[in-house]
Amino acid sequence: MLGGPGAYALDNGLARTPPMGWNSWNKFACDGLNEQVVRATADTIASNGMKDAGYIYVNLDDCWQSGRDAEGNIVVDQAKFPSGIKALADYVHSKGLKFGVYTDVGTKTCAGRPGSIGHEYRDARQYAAWGVDYVKDDWCNTLPGQSAESSYTLMRNALAATGRPIVFSICEWGSNKPWLWAGPIGNLWRATDDIKDCWDCAHRPHSGNGVVQIIDLMAEPGVESYAGPGHWNDPDMLEVGNGGMTTEEYRAHFSMWAMFAAPLLVGTDVANMSADTKSILLNRAVIAVDQDPLGHAATRVKKDGDIEVWARPLANGDRAVALLNRSGKALSIGVAWTDIGYPATLRATVHDLWSDKETRDQSDHYAAEVPSHGVVMVTIAPH
Ligand code: GLA
Fold first, then answer.
1. Can you tell me whether residue 157 is helix, strand or coil?
2. pLDDT in tens, 84-121
3. 22, 83, 201, 205: which has the highest count of C-beta atoms within 10 A?
4. Ligand 1 center to residue 138 CA distance, Å?
5. Whole-prediction pTM value?
6. 354 lines ligand 1 (CB under 6 A)
7. Among 318, 312, 272, which Cα is nearest to 296's?
């Protein structure tokens, strides 16, 4: 079952480009989640340009469920969702959006709510009856020796048996190198442990993965080759707007996720976000790179200390390039045409996707001043 692009995808026809939308966890976690938050989020996404930009999924994360009844049916947390999940899914659908829920392959979710083990078909039928379009399946509280591949295959089959098109998101944190086996099972799989709202978390011991830690995990040679239409590496959801990073750092975070062809699941309070946050999340040119139909994820073509160059080919033959500065001061960073598979003499137009400036007749290389903890992201179009 060795991968590589192409004949390696879950055959459900979904997620031909990386899923885009919103998920409750990064901002609202367990305590802040309730039906008012989700309705307000759907209202905002439908009206502030996000839906038009492609943000379609409105996904509940952990803590919507509270138990099981005598027959084993999942019971909804009544305090958080007094109107029930069906009414909420209907509301989200009425806005022209799609609706997702969260579960876990173990006995309990990570927040201690009921998991799906032994109830996979029952849960899948319930999700389909509610009109669920997306299921994220976590990896907490598994039984000793429980196989990730078998567990996620079981849920994939249960979802398929409902006949409803449902995106299947494997949340196994990269523990068992899911890119090696998850392509035929899920539409996306977490390739890394949980993101934290910091640029470089190394200075905060045990606080998890900041943006640069995830970038390094995504640089593992070959991982990018497992991504493609219908089957994506997931470096976790976005922290843009949550307050732990500067605007420049959030711009770099968003740019790099687009380079990875990552799912773009916004994790902030969109109903109350700042103009800066909105302008990052709504950069159509960067989103277009993420959503490029070729689905070819970026590789790190250069690393020189704190300087990195990442590149990906696009469906029209252009290249997208990110010049990444991880250092504490502004630096000039260049990309050579020969590093991205172009002959040095080729003439091209370089489009800076954040400043929206174009440079024509560029050959051999392109260099730009990149702010500290920032990215200059360009497309390079031969002419
Ligand atoms: C795990 C997942 C997170 C989130 C939480 C919820 O940590 O990786 O994305 O779903 O569980 O408890």
1. helix
2. 999 999 999 999 999 999 999 999 999 999 999 999 99
3. 22
4. 7
5. 0.97
6. no
7. 312
